[in-house]
Amino acid sequence: MKIYNSLTKKIEKFVPLNKKRVSIYSCGPTVYDLPHIGNLSAFIYADTLRRVLEFDYKVFQVMNITDVDDKTIRDSARDYPDKDPAEALRTLTAKYSKVFKKDLKETGNQVDHIKFVSAVDSIPDMIQLTQELLDRGLAYIADDGVYFSIQKYQRTGKTYGILQKIEVTTSQSRIKNDEYDKKNVSDFALWKKMQPGEPSWKAIFKFQGDDYDIEGRPGWHIECSAMSKKLLGVPFDIHTGGIDLKFPHHENEIAQTCGAGANKLANYFVHNNHMLVDGRKMSKSLGNFYTLSDIKEKDFSALDFRLLVLESHYRNESNFSWDIMESAHNRLRTWYEFSDKQFQTVRADSQWVTKTLLSFKDLLLENLKDDLNTPEALSEVSKIVSLHLDQPVGENELEAFLSLLEKLDNLFGLDLKNRLDLEPEQKELLARRAQVRANKNWHQSDELRNTLLQQGVGIRDTKDTQSWFRA
Ligand SMILES: [Zn+2]
């Protein structure tokens, strides 16, 4: 497999640390609101990367759930003003974690292949890592918490600004916010002293011979450094996330982990690009902030959306519009028509499935192993579908056909194999129609076609056979 590594800014051959087991850490959601479609697209790409690697390796993918940070605290206080702050935080984040996992599953991600880890469940690990940075002289205590010193880190000979070049000024300021832009490169908070009305955890830090009792909560960046170390050990193989996480989040993760003694956090950083809506950046003020519910309200499926995402290469900006959604929907409908051939095998032997299975499996996988080229791989699938849509599957090849569908599902997660056959009554109508057609009773044949169409079943006629599809 070849993949673009943000660390080296090159497409590189993927070489795992351990031949048998690949470790992936995916920066997960901050659970303070409904996930929008741009968030979901990042996880669909990470899921696809894992699926492709799973063809050759055992993969262990960890995803964090950010259930304590500036935004979750802010919104839990707003939504549950009468609850105790810790309880308010738990209520808000439990609600949105649930929605997130449901959306993730519905959009075809293999949630049972992911080990989720909650930040709130890992606070002692964050305190310990913060202490380690204090011990190594790379962190210091200020009035409002514990901060990471970028200058001290650089003095150890390490670079701050590995993913993107970053200018560090000599007069170092401090920043308490979890999120900030490059104009505000500053020492960042590892641990934030409790503010009135905020949830907090007890922590005692040792610094320059003194004990500091600083009840508070972790900064956002230390969370991922602590959780990746705890679950995967460092370095691990691949770190995934949206391109917007490069700075400050991933840069800070690298600094914290390497500051605590590691040479590297991860060998490969894989970043996906933004999803635009109608060619513009998604934002609440533009009102173009869609969620999965918006998509389903328009009668599109979550898997239609998954296909739309995969139609763009992960390193390009993808675009969402209702027209693009419609065309993804139509494309997937044709694929389902293809997969419904599993219920319509014919007695005569066929050969095309076995041939397809032999020649196209490698072609598909080859495209995906080439820096996850999903658009090309999908166009190979469309080629298979359009070439064979009218070709029946012989009973001799049913097993091969099901195996083809399963392989496609393993790669793309579009649920091609797991389809529903027609009802027995509908099959009877079809059989009757075949009979009246043989007797050239066109009127009755048309009537039966209409009856089935009203039940959502379309019929395609060939010279002497008919096949059905979900209309
Ligand atoms: Zn993270």
Question: How does the SSE layout of this entry go?
Answer:
Layout: E1 2-5, E2 10-13, E3 21-26, H1 37-53, E4 58-65, H2 70-79, H3 85-106, E5 114-118, H4 123-135, E6 139-142, E7 145-148, H5 150-155, E8 174-175, E9 187-193, E10 204-207, E11 210-213, E12 216-218, H6 220-231, E13 236-242, H7 246-259, E14 266-272, E15 275-277, E16 280-281, H8 292-297, H9 302-310, E17 318-320, H10 322-339, H11 352-369, H12 374-388, H13 398-412, H14 424-438, H15 442-454, E18 457-461, E19 466-470
Parallel strand pairs: 3-4, 3-13, 4-5, 8-9, 13-14, 15-17
Antiparallel strand pairs: 1-2, 6-7, 7-9, 9-12, 10-11, 15-16, 18-19
Helix pairs in contact: 2-3, 4-6, 6-7, 9-10, 10-12, 11-12, 11-13, 14-15
This protein binds zinc ion.
What is the tally of helical segments?
A: 15
Question: How much strand content do the residues show?
Answer: 15-25%
How many domains?
Answer: 3
**Helix fraction by DSSP (H/I, runs of at least 4):** 40-55%
Q: Calculate the terminal CA-CA distance, rounded to whole Å.
A: 39 Å
Shape: elongated
Let me know the CATH homologous superfamily of the largest domain.
HUPs
Give the neighbour order of strands across the main sheet.
5-4-3-13-14
How confident overall, as mean pLDDT?
Answer: 95
Structural class: alpha/beta
| CATH architecture field of the largest domain | 3-Layer(aba) Sandwich
Task: Name the ligand types.
Answer: zinc ion
